[in-house]
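so my prof wants the structure for this chain in the tokens format not the other one, which i didnt know existed until like an hour ago. anyway here's the sequence
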Amino acid sequence: MSDTTELISRLQTVMKWELAGTIQYLHHAAMLMGVERLPYCEFFKEGSEEAREHAELVATKITALGGMPAAEPAQIRLGSTLEETLLAALALEVDALAAWEAALEVADSANLGTQFWIEEMIAHEQEHVDELRKLTGKIAIAGASKDASSQAG
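here's what i got, hopefully its the right format
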């Protein structure tokens, strides 16, 4: 398998995760109920639109490299509570980030512009992972459990 063929294959995996994000986030926006609905509904709608835009960019790159974009999404994780939907979003973003990083591993078979574009997308996906880790409480803050008064002295 040529390096370009491998890059196309890995970008197809990225495409599947972006399609999954489009569907998953749209579903979460529609299904949220309760007092958290309004702020998080918009959060998930924006996530769905961004994933769709990413899918469009990936599809364009795949065809520019001579491949055919994937048409089936990766795993879609659904939740019925706000916490479940945020955890599902975190899992999706972690998987999407891993797919982008895998594409970067073989991106040297393409031009520098493609490599830089993939790096930029990785940075963007990492921001999503970081934010969702904060929202879900899946991040430990060093020294956060210390008494504030003991830190003042």
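also thought this was worth mentioning. The mean pLDDT is 91.
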